[in-house]
Amino acid sequence: MAVATKKKAAPVSEAVVKFVLNGERYELSVQSNWTLRDVLHGKLGFTGAKEFCDRGACGACTTIVNGRPVLSCMTLAIECDGKTIESVEGIAKANHPLIEAYVMNHCMQCGYCTPGFVVTAKALLDKNPKPTEEDVKEALAGNLCRCGTYPRHIVAVLEASKKL
Question: How would DSSP label each residue in 120-158?
């Protein structure tokens, strides 16, 4: 009878990463197993990117990295060295039309999913400032909402696009 042996976990190393977050430069020492979401929350105090599924399935932790929406729970912080990152806090600080459109169109009930939707929508509008309804549906397809406010998100994104 064979005896199963337990593999040792790989040692965790540290690295210094430099990036720009919401227009501000940061230089941090991070562990190799830390995610971007871990760093945003635990090291920098940005709580907008939510931990909902922690498996890359819900979109609640979405951030924009070098112009592309990414799931911060699936992105290692060491991969962000030299990159430009935008979080929902930066979008709000810039008073992007999405913020008012989301409020005016009642796009949230519990609000947990809202930051991920806003960030994903911002990435879409950066790439395509005049999207069609189908473009919005496709862009937001990876974001989940437990409360079922999906139709309102589409209205808000299209409304915000008219103000750009």
Answer: HHHHHHHH-SS--HHHHHHHHTT---TT--HHHHHHHHH
d(CA 41, CA 135): 31
Options 3.30.70.1530, 3.10.20.30, 3.30.830.10, 3.40.50.150; CATH of 14-86: 3.10.20.30
- In the chain, CATH 1.10.150.120 sits at 91-162
Average pLDDT over residues 8-34: 93
Tell me what pLDDT residue 106 has.
Answer: 95
Q: Which one has a higher pLDDT value, 4 or 16?
A: 16
State whether residue 141 is helix, strand or coil: coil
Q: Please, what sign has the CA dihedral across residues 43, 25, 76, 67?
A: positive
- Count of helix runs (H) and strand runs (E) in the chain: 6, 5
Q: Hey, is 69 helix, strand or coil?
A: strand
DSSP 63: E
pLDDT in tens, 80-123: 999 999 999 999 999 999 999 999 999 999 999 999 999 999 99
- Distance (Å, rounded) from C-alpha 120 to C-alpha 142? 9
